[in-house]
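Tokens help. Consider this.
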Amino acid sequence: MVNRSSVVPAVLGLFAVVGVIGLMSVSSTDDDGGPAAEAPPAAAALSAQEIGSVSRATDIPRRALTAYVAAAQRAERDVPACRIGWNTIAGIGSSESSHGAFGGASLGDDGVAKPLIIGVPLDGTGGNRAIDDTEGGELDGDDRWDRAVGPLQFIPTTWARWGADGDGDGVANPHDIDDAAAAAAAYLCDAGDDLSASEGWSRAVLTYNQSGAYARQVSRTATEYARAS
């Protein structure tokens, strides 16, 4: 069983700081030349009944867990060599927004967090990269600067490339955890190729956030989730 007190709290907006595809190269190694983090075991897919019990064991809201499992299954179908587990997506969801609960938000039946989860302006302060508005504030409500949005904290430029319709409703919405989880899985698989290996897993997660400490925390959290399932 997972130690619930050890589950990482939200660190909203980290994807916004460094998760912009194409703006930087990312090393998957630590200072000693090894992988930045050990790849967690990939948790097996869950049935509807198992989702309920694992949700209770991990404190991952059932609505969020359903999205993570579906995203991993979609990746297994579309990119079978990736070998991403739902627990890796959940580890990132925990760090980025406490599974859609950051700031008192909660996920509705439609998968959208209310109130919407929107990060700080990416105006070049506080360690953030300065990113001028790219979408007229349509996603983040800010027509001066871009901001990270949704439970997986996508910035608009990254969403424009990787946005997905995870729930098949005809709309790709970064505020919808089904869509965001599907997009995150595709993004990670593209970056890491094979996430069953520590080097590939580290490379993938470090493109989400270029911090070894972040990668190791996500690995620990994802490992706890796998053990709980």
User: Anything to note?
Assistant: Residues 9-19+38-228 form one domain. The beta strands are 106-107, 113-114. The helical segments are 14-18, 48-58, 62-78, 86-97, 156-162, 177-192, 198-208, 212-228.
